[in-house]
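Human:
I keep going back and forth on a fold encoding question. Comparing notes only helps if you start from a blank page. Show me how you would write down a chain together with its backbone fold. Write it directly below this note and I will take it from there.

Assistant:
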Amino acid sequence: MQTKKFTGPDVKKVPLVNFLTGQPSADLLPSSLFANASKKLFEIPGTEDAVLNYAPSLGSPDFLKNLANFLSEEYHTPVYKEHLCATPGASLALEHILALLTRPQTSTKFAIFQDPTYHLVYDIYRNVGFKDDQFIGIPEVIDGSGLDTKVLGKFLAKSLPLADPKTKDVEDYAAVLYCVPTHANPSSSTLSSPRRKELVDLAHRYNVLVLCDDVYDILTYEGSTPRRLVAYDLDIPGKAVVVSNCSFSKILAPGARAGWIEAKPCLIERVGVCGSFHSGGSPSNLGKVMSKIRTTIC
């Protein structure tokens, strides 16, 4: 009996889709939207000074106001500009926050990760001084409801002392935890509401800074997204323990390098008075264009 070897399609004739980088194809990028918004913006008298000179450390006030309104609509809950700071995207913001608020050689003993997690995040932690033996993985539960807070609670109880409730210093955390609460990369899990509240309670109990990669929250197309971790933290008086780190990379264009963080005002103020912001102003002065894009769409 003769057999025919299956060789598959001629790969030279099949268009390839590159999944190695998480970015849209060029035909999906909103180039005309950016062009029209920029044109309309620069037709306004005085725009040159507002856009092309140094920006306020936290970002353009108009941008922060428009961003708060946009997020309030998307999250279906009030967001206030006093809780926001413009950033050049989630990756750079993560490294910036770690450099400012953690002390890996002294007080910040552990870097805790949702396991599995975004694979490129480890080098960001190494860049600011964390060593691999400080990395701790906390598994997800098998039902798809995110990080196992019971396992996390046992680890924290065994490894860290209880936090001093009187301490409000946002540069003195015993550990830092990175997670993607909604549509996690790579597992796609979403942390359930009870576990979100428990995670914030644990962060306060053991003085843990929780850095939430919230870039996918607005990309929920079926059902509703649970309340964000930062919203729970904003309800609790005292020290800030949660940062919501967000970006326009997933919802508009990665090359815009525009994003924001949301947290308690004490933490936002600390980020805004850092040396690099004080020297060069906001690292994301594209906010004026982003605001004009929103008004153009609406």
In short: The mean pLDDT is 89. The beta strands are 84-87, 110-115, 135-139, 175-179, 208-213, 242-247, 259-262. The CA atoms of residues 212 and 244 lie 5 Å apart. The chain has eleven helices and seven strands.
